[in-house]
Amino acid sequence: MARTPAAPLSPSHFLRAGLDPTGRTTPGGFALLALGMGILWGLGRLGPTWIEGWGRGQEALAAIPLAALLVPGTGHALRRLNDTGRPGWWAWALALPWLRWALLAWLLVAPSSQRRRRTDSQWRILGLGVAGVAAVGLAGSLIWTTAPVVAQGMKPALLPGDLVLVRRAPVRLSRGDVVAFGMEGETAAPRMGRIVALGGERVAVEGGAPVIDGGKAAWAEDGVFSEAFGRQGPEGVMPVCGNGTVGLGAECATQRFLETLPDGTTYAVLDAGRRPLDAAGEVQVPRGQFYMLGDHRDAVRDSRLSPAVQGMGFVAEAQVIGRVDLVVASSEGAHWWDPRGWRPSRVLEVVR
Length: 352
Description:
alpha+beta
């Protein structure tokens, strides 16, 4: 009796099979899927560095297909575990940076097994749900990203240890917006500052307050910003206090003001007393660039200083990553996973 030839592999059928995590997937099929996802992942990570003219469109060509493959890819990883006779909970290693690669390498070479395990389908479906959430987050990264706050220059709006949601450029930026931006030669966390002057305007600083085209910002007392003197956030920065030198754990008190720019934009700033940077000479902001100030005027090296002395200088629109809109997590400790430093009251706080 003639043997019926095997049906050709259908990519659509293969991906649909990934939505049923209780079946089996052979090493060859999983290898092809892992290769495709690996290429897309590598393109997204290395494209901005290796490909000239890399932009949002090219990023979308990598991120959207990868997001679409994330759920069936996780399903096939679960099927591959089932095919080797291993429990599905092993797939949680995919969420851990180093174990992820070890598990994927093992799934690529592990032989199939005749041993069948209980399908534990409820947990496997939960795994697909987690992958779905991750896929939505990956697709959403084309519009939003997160950034850590490591410095204290934007107190009281932002604190060291905050994790903020950034609406990615291109976005319409206005005077008074808090933005995240990169500096040439820096690969660490982005810097953050508040836009106080736009291209074409003349700006100076007098008594810590900006003077824009001859109009000086008004200050109104708004109480005292109080915090414990000690290391804050992942970099362990120490606060600058308005009440002088204090000991560890003592109260660090700094005068708080409401600053109102000539156009009516208002936000809170901190002033620790007379300091050298309370005055900066008048300059004209070039077109397509911004003049940035930190809200804690005595704890930041902003546009009052040039990059040559570790300041910001003028910040070009091309340097702006996006507008900082929301605090999504916050911890004053050195490690985010240590609950003793969590600040739950700051979660979902809108940045103004």
